[in-house]
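Example with several molecule types.
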Amino acid sequence: MLPDQPFEALWPRSPRQTGIKPLAGRLESLNGRTIAQIWDYLFKGDVVFEHLEQAIKAQFPAVKFVSWREFGSTHGGDEKENIAEFAKKFKALGIDAVVSGMAC
Amino acid sequence: MPTSSLTCEGFIRQAGATSIGLGMPNIPLAMVPDHIGTKSPEELKRDVMEVTAPQVIDNLTVQPASKGKSNEPAARDIVCKGTFAEINQYFIDHELSDGLPIVPPTQQAVETFLQFTDRDPNEVLGVILPDSRAATIWSIAVNGVMAGCRPEYMPVLIAAIEGMCDPAYGVEHSGNTPGGDTLLIINGPIIKQLGFNYTQGALRDGFQANTSIGRFWRLYLRNIAGFLPHKTDKATFGNTFRVVLAENDDVLKQIGWPNTAQEMGHAVGDNTVTIARYTGGGSFSSVSGDTPETLLPYVADSVLKYHMWQLTFTTSHGMGKLRPLVVITPILAETIAKAGWSKADVKQYLFDHARLPAWEFERQLRDWNIRGVWDLKDDVRNGRIPKVFYENDDENRRVPMVWKPEDFMIAVSGDPLRNNMYVFAHNGFLGFPVGKKIQLPTNWESKLKKIIGWVERSATHQSGDATPRKVGCAALHPPYKIGAKT
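Resulting structure tokens for the full complex:
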């Protein structure tokens, strides 16, 4: 075929296999709630979580945090195993919300 | 459960693009200004307290607005009708091309590719992140056409994408900032059948099978996995796709060493594709000596020097997933084997000699790299890494760069009579080695023989003879040989 002949080109992608997932309802207040800290063990997340705790507690004194140490790394050789445990751990620890980092 | 995702400023766009493929386009993000790696402790505290924390609170207490689904074409839709130039402009404008001209993927061309597989075009090999698109036989054919592959490469392309879909490989990490690219290693009789170059210039473009299949891999990452620069692909620099490496199976058989396919668990004579992702690498010239003892110190020193921050895949968050690859030429392999050394002996040598002082190993990760909550002593005492990393308190003790000798990969290819080598710096679990057997269609050889010129092609390139092969167009110039006297 010569370059100036008309071509009918097919779409090279395939459809996405996920639909839109509705997000969970938000909390009215963080007071009395338990927040899980989820970390990939990179980019000073341990320091960032300390500062976040301080700032959030200043506004919501009755908020509680569960440290990233409880959950293992979300980005590493054992990431799949750690993430697979989240649902069970969240339930056991009474987690109401999650803060996850660090995307850097 | 409500969430908030902590995202550095430069990654907001990537997080937004990734969230679409995950089916949560409105997932809330909390930004950390600039990048954490260059902030003073005071700046970090101020930014987190004043910028990030209020956003985290909003993320957890204010319901995000919903977003709709984009209206995309269907799998077999024709998206553009026009000339070669118009088709190419459309594909570039819609982020469907790598910037080089593509072969228009027409129905006829795709069907020709599908003749080289017995599998159903609708078969789904996996769903690939971040776009969560189905990796189908059909989409492999479409992207193979675009990349400039020949139809008979189809079995290789399918095996490569089976590797991409293997969870052990970790394709979802292909947009990380070091910007590594995948190397495909081919073994088996198919090397000669399809005319892969496995001798001089083994990693140079200029050989259709090696080059176009390498390009196909990255087009598939773009169009099916969904890795797009400035969006889901956050390569800080990146580089172009890698030309496929074909091993010199003849030499390996002659010296009695297993090839890469066998080391990945396949049988002798199997056609295979092995994939792994590398962030860098380079050629080392003139590995001189006539015995393993005189040749290998240079090899050990070189493989160590090409793995610096990558040590994070040995301990730290990689935990034993580093697999350095050393490609040596046939003459080097033959010289080592002549002394009675097996490939396993070479790996043991590298494990024993490619070592660095413990203080230097720790400095790389604790002080120079990305994590500050670890050390070798603590990891050994808690059973997270092998004892060889902490045998005493001497900070000058020499520690290995991998957990065990078998973690080194050694391939044989390149100029048979030049004593050079190439070291690939591995990307750990973000592109872990995976090997797949190439499934040939029924009547493979008869189908091959129907493809114009395949015999001539495989016969010519190994000898360097540029005799024109039979082609379908009318030659307007008399046959000639490059370099021939006129």
